[in-house]
Specification:
The chain is of the alpha+beta class and 273 residues long. Helix content is 53%, strand content 15%. The chain has nine helices and seven strands; from the N terminus they run αββαααβααββααββα. Strands 3, 4, 5, 6 and 7 form a five-stranded antiparallel beta sheet that branches. The longest helix has 34 residues, at 231-264. 9% of the residues are buried. The model has no long low-confidence stretch (mean pLDDT 90).
Length: 273
């Protein structure tokens, strides 16, 4: 403990006493600069240093044993490191060129065309729905008002909800255009059902009363798992797919262009026929 406490003080004056040794490898205090935050308590600092030193010892004990017991051919990573370095260099340069020239504008026509061509790829993995909901506390007057609103035809319902649902709710969701995961809806609304598909097919409105809250839910539309997903539900995914494909094509073009330019400028020679 005294040694580690001294280490904390030494960290501040930049001396480098020895902390640990594994055979001919040494760990000095100067090697651990930065692992102890300036605002750490002495107890926390000691714990951090002790943990770091123990990990260092364990790691280097394993390295030593591996070096002693593996054949020399399995310890030479020169080629792998060079290959890895080259891959990183190429990746970073390609990324830079792609970022400079990539067309990131994807039109609605692009998305719709891809969706229509690949619609079979977009089978739903879950049930989804369009729905609006309101959650209120147990208040008879407010409850009666929402009973009236949710009995209105759709042509009046949504405008009425937008007008009335301001400060008298615990929570609400009034977007009629977005598809929602039915599972996620169930995380908010305590809908209990053993058959989600059948529930969606048979219910357009539900009112749920709990000890504390009342839940009003209007289901506008739904799609069942394994149905073809609506375009809007996959719009962002399709955008990302299109961009990803453009990147792949552009990366191939970049490589080919660089090769052809080098060939034209006599930058390389191949010595076989």
């Amino acid at each position: 403990m005294a040694l580690l406490t001294g280490c904390i003080n030494t960290l501040k004056d930049n001396n480098s006493p020895l902390l640990a040794r594994v055979h001919d490898k040494y760990l000095y205090i100067s090697d651990i600069q930065g692992i102890v935050p300036d605002n750490s308590t002495p107890r926390d600092s000691i714990a951090l240093i002790r943990s770091y030193v123990n990990d260092w010892v364990r790691t280097n004990v394993m390295i030593y044993q591996a070096q002693q017991n593996l054949p020399a051919g399995q310890l030479d990573f020169t080629k792998q490191l060079e290959d890895y370095r080259n891959s990183l260099i190429i990746y970073r340069y390609e990324t830079k060129l792609i970022d400079q020239t990539l067309d990131t504008i994807v039109t609605d026509n692009d998305i719709e065309s891809y969706y229509n061509t690949h619609s079979s790829d977009f089978e739903l993995k879950e049930n989804i729905t369009k729905a609006v909901y309101v959650i209120i506390e147990d208040d008879l007057e407010i409850e009666e008002k929402y009973d009236q609103i949710f009995s209105l035809p759709d042509s009046l319902l949504f405008d009425s909800l937008a007008y009335y649902t301001t400060t008298n709710t615990v929570s609400s969701y009034l977007d009629t255009t977005k598809w929602l995961s039915f599972y996620n809806v169930q995380q908010i609304i305590p809908i209990e059902t053993y058959n989600r598909e059948l529930f969606l097919k048979n219910n357009r409105f539900v009112k749920i009363v709990t000890d504390r809250y009342l839940y009003f839910v209007k289901f506008i539309d739904f799609k069942i798992k394994d149905d073809i997903s609506p375009l809007d539900f996959k719009r962002n995914d399709i955008y990302n797919i299109i961009i990803s494909r453009r990147k792949v094509r552009l990366a191939k073009k970049v490589r080919n262009d660089i090769y052809e330019r080098a060939l034209k400028n006599d930058e390389f020679e191949i010595y076989y026929h």
